Amino acid sequence: MAKLAAAKSSLDAAVDARLLAVAHPLHKDLQKIRKVMLGIDPTISEGFKWNSASYRTSDFFATLNLRCTDQVQFVFHTGAKVKASAKSGVAIADPAGLCTWLAKDRCLVSLGAGKQITAKLPAFRALVRGWILML
User: Fold this and answer.
1) How many CB atoms lie within 10 A of CB 83?
2) Number of folded domains that form the chain
3) CA-to-CA distance for 110 and 124, rounded, in angstroms?
4) pLDDT tens digit string along 41-86?
């Protein structure tokens, strides 16, 4: 069982190749946060969707925002289509204020760059755990 969890938590080679092609100025920070995301829960896997690294359990729920070049950001969502359970809005604890709500079912999660990311990791992990429980 531990081998299965370890296999799921490894970075996807296809995502690696595509992110290298983008030549993002925060490439090292993106690599770090990808590893963190995959280590939060063994059910999380990585793929390339919506022109970026995206993360899923049973459905995609988070996508790296590569358009932002001065900090690491994710769009947290409920998948490609709005789910009935999310139409009234997503309720999730965000005591660190990482989320900027874009719609009732999606938010932009801003982590900063460099050491800022490290400081926000505990709040980020809690946010991801809460989001996937809500799905």
Assistant:
1) 13
2) 1
3) 9
4) 999 999 999 999 999 999 999 999 999 999 999 999 987 666 555 5
